[in-house]
Write a structure and sequence with these properties.
Largest sheet: 8 strands, mixed, barrel
Order of helices and strands: HEEEHHEHHEHHEHEHHEHEEH
Number of helices: 12
Bound molecules: ligand C2E, magnesium ion
Oligomer: single chain
Shape: globular
Number of strands: 10
Radius of gyration: 21 Å
Distance between the termini: 66 Å
């Protein structure tokens, strides 16, 4: 790809930059096309109440089925969607789909709290609370059925505006959750000042906590911290029975992870719930 020159000869395109900005442009148009052609899929992953073993909530996780590249995980397009602002459209799509599923489940007698991830851009979107209220009203869903997950870094970006958006969402009656807790900065200051209901311990502390004593100590302290602040505590990244049992003994409220189930297409959830059998724990050591 040859460097181009403008009339004056003064402007020289640097090939790599040119190429990457072209790729960005085409990725953005592919994302837009994906919305138009229904190429996003709503996946959900169950959350289990540790005390009872019941499935009481799910987290919505988006996937992209690309016509040529196939199945694409969110890590490969969410950051780009955030940079370009496309995330606002995607978030609305996810909220709409999540509300649709929620009301279908309700109609069939399955009551589950639905968690949706928000990103930095969403927290700066002044229209979001009204748009969300409108979605809930159209689907006749009470705000208490929803939980919005926010990361510490998303709040960090513009704490003042983020707090305003969060306050508006919270007065609607929606639950708010701090996601990936422990990986960002100033976690404790946010816990004190934000209207939060739930804290999700990041999977990096949970994955190997049955082997790593330091991880186990961090998880235990985080559960206690959350409870002392009056919050519900959820552990993500539960991959085996030992971790599930440890969390239960530590008094953690809910668990989410591959040991229970990997994320699945939302339409499969009800059948999965009907087959779910909670683990039998061994006698406490
Ligand atoms: P997250 O919100 O922290 O979601 C949890 C991630 O951990 C999910 O990855 C889930 O599949 C994965 N996970 C759950 N249990 C286990 C486990 O036992 N072991 C391991 N190794 N991983 C587990 P996923 O679906 O690839 O999503 C990655 C991230 O992308 C999410 O992290 C979230 O930050 C973002 N994301 C996903 N969907 C959306 C969305 O609709 N909107 C926004 N803004 N972000 C989203
Ligand atoms: Mg999350
Ligand atoms: Mg998380
Ligand atoms: Mg995480």
């Amino acid at each position: 790809y040859a460097a181009k020159q403008r009339n004056s000869g003064a402007v020289t395109y640097i090939p790599e930059i040119d190429k990457s900005s072209q790729q960005s442009l085409s990725l953005l148009s592919e994302l837009r096309a994906a919305l138009d052609h229904n190429a996003f899929r709503l996946y959900v992953q169950p959350k289990v109440e540790l005390g009872t073993g019941r499935v009481i909530a799910v987290e919505a996780l988006v996937r992209w089925i690309h016509p040529e590249r196939g199945f694409i995980f969110p890590d490969q397009f969410i950051p780009f969607a955030e940079q370009t602002g496309f995330i606002r459209l995607l978030t609305r799509w996810v909220l709409e789909q999540a509300a649709t599923m929620c009301s279908e489940w309700e109609a069939r007698g399955l009551h589950l709290k639905m968690s949706v991830n928000l990103s930095t851009r969403d927290l700066l979107d002044q229209d979001l609370p009204n748009k969300f209220a409108d979605i809930l009203a159209r689907h006749k869903i009470s705000p208490e059925s929803f939980c919005l997950e926010i990361t510490e870094s998303a709040i960090m970006d513009d704490p003042v505006r983020a707090q305003q958006t969060l306050e508006r969402l919270h007065v609607m009656g929606v639950d708010l959750s701090i996601d990936d807790f422990g990986t960002g900065y100033s976690s404790l200051a946010y816990l004190k000042s934000l209207p939060v209901d739930e804290l999700k311990i990041d999977k990096s502390f949970v994955l190997k906590m049955e082997q790593d004593l330091d991880d186990a100590k961090i998880v235990r302290s985080t559960i206690d911290l959350g409870h002392n602040m009056g919050l519900r505590v959820v552990a993500e990244g539960v991959e085996n029975k030992d971790v599930m049992q440890l969390l239960r003994e530590m008094g953690c409220d809910q668990a989410q992870g591959y040991y229970i189930s990997k994320p699945m297409p939302a339409e499969h959830l009800q059948e999965w719930v009907m087959k779910w059998v909670p683990p039998e724990y061994s006698a406490a050591a």
